[in-house]
Predict the structure.
Amino acid sequence: MSAAFLPSEYSTGLVLLSVVVAVFASFVALDLARRVHDAPPHLARIWLAGGSIAMGTGIWSMHFLGMLAFRLPIALGYDIVLTLLSWMIVVAVSGLALAIAGRPRLTMPWLLGGALAMGAGICAMHYLGMFAMRMSPPIVWHAGWVAASAAIATTASLAALLLFHGLRRANGLRRLNLQGLAAIVMGGAIAGMHYSGMAAANFPLDSVCGAALEIDTYWLAGTIGGAALLLLSTTLFASIVDARIQSRTAKLARSLKAANRELSRIAFRDPLTGLANRLVLEDRIDHAATRSERTGDRLALFFIDLDGFKPINDSFGHQAGDTVLRVIGGRIGACCRETDTVARIGGDEFAILVEDAGGRETLGKLAERIVQSISQPIELHEHPTSLSCSIGIAVFPENSPAERLVAHADAAMYHAKRDGKATYRFFTPEMDAGAAETIKLQQDLRAGLNRGEFELYYQLKRDARSGACCGAEALLRWRHPGRGMVEPDNFLPVAERFGLMVPLGNWVLDEAIRQAGQWLRDGMPVPVAINLSPLQLRQPDLQARLAAALARNKVPPEMITLEITESAAMEDADATLALVERLNQQGLRISIDDFGTGYSSLSYLRRFTADQIKIDRAFIADMVGNPDALALVAGVIQLAHSLDLRVVAEGVETEAQQARLIELGCDEMQGFLFSCPAPAAGMAARIGAADTFTAPPLPWHASNHTATP
Ligand code: C2E
Ligand code: CA
Ligand code: CA
């Protein structure tokens, strides 16, 4: 260094302290990045804000300690305004880093743009800090060292972003080790940037520090070092406590899943015969069909209906009927292989799914064996009784698509019966009466949409504690001139299959929001819930359409809740997640419908910006009397509350269910016990003069929940 400059030296103690602070700040920052990523959205914002301050202050104080470690043979000090400004810059840069690291995906533009912005911010902080000394004559800069410090700052930022991101997946001790290592690398890089930036500065011999009197150096070193370490420790402590809570939530989710499995085991068996039930059969067909697309195996479905069961039931009584069904179930099972699925799917209807089915001849032989076996007499009250069965067989992929397998086998069974019973028939296309019916229904639906045959009924939701109305769910009805009032389960699947779901759903959106606006003008602010089909979620114009309808009817978005079924939410998870977040930002409420039927991972739900979940009515129906269902409902409520979600129970039909739900802390209830779906016109009367409206509180106000563990 040239003799024209002041000689400088470093205080080793303070340099060491500055490096320690840098490494510690990096360690805490890495922890925070994970918090921002894992926490539910509203908590993530708090972590982001608090985290930026802690991390920024950490980096800044490292820088400042480094400055204080630097000694010149003249008095030094720092301009307080510029010093504060440099702190603000680095807090902002830290916020940027945490926000980028918390993104679900780190793409190249984000990575590079983020690293450049962070590098520039750190340089700005450092050099502004140097200017805060207000040296005259000005500092002489060594261009090479300045460039080196900028390069180090940018590279360190890039490394930091990659580390932030990479560490998210690691767990346990491995994570701790990696995080420690990463913190040393990052801390080293931050310190490296600083000391190379210092090396760039040369102070002319006649230098005077213009800020020399403003702040005392030694007092500063102690205060800043101490405060930074304290702040960082507190933040780390909070982060660790939060991680504990999160992991308990995860544990709860796991036990809930186990309860779910147990419940489905019970729910999927026919209690009388111990055979599989219809649900299992359909599930097996689904899986087998998917497999067979790979392996080329054929599947056969046998639909077995007993001939003459009703007279036995009538003359010998139900108990005798049950015995017969058990015996028959056993006989059918005995004719089958281990790999076949035998199910009871109706009163006296059985089905067999044969995977890896042979040719028609083999299948015919099996059918004959079953007919034979069932025709054997059964002892009932010492009377040998006999009955027979008719069998229909459909084969996939030969002449039945998987989803029509049961219907086709059923149609074939009907022909076997018509042809004299105690026999079997293979399905042929002309037996398919259902298809013609479906096509007719589809044409009627199209015409109905043009003729305005659709209506919305509304079912009230009530606050579990106060009983006050807290909204109404819009439910679609079809007033068909010939068929009468048709319920959605009977036409929505067809609408969905024939591309009518979107126009129909759009009509529902417009009509429900129009009605909400009408009620609002009539002085009844009824929050309205609208069901969305998965197909609607994939419409690019959904958000614009909603916004237009809200504006047209002057309805505030908080008045509208969109109900999305759990399974729809799981489909195409990332896209749905993004869409739901946008809708939520628009102010609309989001509800996860039919919860419990989709077996979704609750950790996924945690990332959803939903406001409430609706427990499926199947669980509510089973709740009183079935401890497993009760445990599930209790678990769902507890978990939902720990995620700040409101819980709505649907299908509440009895006072016993109501009482149980109130005990468990459920927030809202809906069901025939309180009100049936009915036309909009009678709303005022149904709400009743005594009732007040309570719009559900925003999720972050949901402090009245039962305490979470
Ligand atoms: P969901 O969303 O689960 O709607 C609640 C259903 O439960 C309604 O049937 C309602 O009448 C029925 N329900 C209400 N209280 C009780 C009760 O106490 N006990 C029992 N057993 N049932 C109760 P609904 O109106 O037949 O609708 C059936 C399904 O059709 C709805 O199920 C929903 O998934 C769908 N849906 C209805 N309207 C629309 C619509 O506008 N758009 C879309 N995409 N789907 C709709
Ligand atoms: Ca619903
Ligand atoms: Ca539902």
Q: What stands out?
A: The domain at 441-704 is CATH 3.20.20.450 (TIM Barrel). The two ends are 63 Å apart (CA to CA).
